[in-house]
Design brief:
CATH superfamily of one domain: ATP synthase, F1 complex, gamma subunit
Largest sheet: 5 strands, mixed
Strand content: 15-25%
CATH architecture of one domain: 3-Layer(aba) Sandwich
Number of helices: 5
Helix content: 40-55%
Shape: elongated
Strand order of the largest sheet: 3-2-1-4-5
Structural class: alpha/beta
CATH topology of one domain: Pyruvate Kinase, Chain: A, domain 1
């Protein structure tokens, strides 16, 4: 049985740990609110871009001939992996990195986040590039990632690109997602004229337009600006979703850790009181026995 000194020492140590997890919970909570707002506010714009691209598949348009839209017969796939820089966010990274195992070992990766890079290094997979990000994420950072992928895709170094990231559903639920990025036509989820939002999974309120659009000044000029922007924004929005998921998962994990620490302190305090009460009772019995023997 542990001594009262050992129990007091454990209670003090766990109480210090609880103070740390509580502080981390508060920090994650403050960052979570802003990250969630940015992710949710970006969804309508992402859906609008998908609708514009889906509308472009008309009989008189040459949208499919644009380099970023062309499907290729070869299968050299590359994956953009978006993970977190830090841990202590529950099973967020573990669930995401399980999707990596679905790809052949020779598949090259581009990483955003230290946890994903460390996992790929441990498993002996090829990393083409690694991009750091700040908090909050800046659009300029997504442009750097997008430029690298667009240049590699148009130069023929890769034939398709997938994104692996964690999609924000709500504060206690985050889902790992595999989303096709390039060629751009692969990511459009169009069925019988209806559009489905690729992040929320909910049915769009609008219909895909059946009237072919008019381009001003001309189709080539518009697509040369629109399609690279669509790729950049898709990457940026995935980064926002992943960051909102990270802060939400960390806040929940730290709250659970704090609650568990409080419960352990409560149990140890009860054990401490029992041992102390038993020691006092023993001393009283010894004093009573000694007094009775002296009479």
């Amino acid at each position: 049985m542990a001594s009262t000194r050992d129990i007091r020492r454990r209670i003090k140590s766990i109480r210090n740990t609880a103070q740390i997890t509580k502080a981390m919970q508060m920090v994650a909570s403050s960052r979570m609110k802003r990250a969630q707002e940015m992710a949710l506010q970006g969804r309508p714009y992402s859906e609008m871009i998908n609708r514009i691209l889906a509308t472009g598949h008309g009989e008189n348009l040459s949208l499919d001939t644009h380099p970023l839209m062309m499907r290729r017969t070869t299968t050299r796939k590359c994956v953009l992996l978006i993970s977190t820089d830090k841990g202590l966010c529950g099973g967020l990274n573990t669930n995401l990195l399980k999707l990596v195992l679905d790809y052949p070992r020779e598949t090259p990766f581009i990483t955003v986040g230290k946890k994903g890079k460390q996992f790929l290094t441990r498993t002996g997979r090829k990393i083409l590039a690694d991009f750091p990000t700040s908090d909050p994420i800046r659009f300029q950072e997504a442009k750097g990632v997008a430029k690298y992928l667009i240049d590699a895709f148009t130069d023929g170094e890769m034939d398709s690109v997938d994104i692996l990231y964690t999609n924000f559903v709500n504060t206690i639920r985050q889902e790992p997602i595999k989303l096709p990025l390039l060629p751009l036509g692969c990511k459009l989820q169009v069925s019988t004229g209806d559009l489905r939002d690729v992040h929320s999974g909910e049915q769009s309120s609008g219909k895909a337009d059946t009237v072919e659009p008019l381009f001003e000044p001309d189709q080539a000029t518009v697509l040369s600006e629109l399609l690279p922007h669509a790729v950049t924004y898709q990457i940026w929005h995935c980064l926002l979703e992943a960051r909102a998921s990270e802060h939400s998962a960390r806040m929940v994990a730290m709250k659970n850790a704090t609650d568990n620490a409080k419960q352990i302190i409560k149990d140890l305090t009860l054990e401490y009181n029992k041992i102390r009460q038993s020691a006092i009772t023993t001393e009283i019995l010894e004093i009573s026995t000694a007094a009775a023997a002296m009479q």
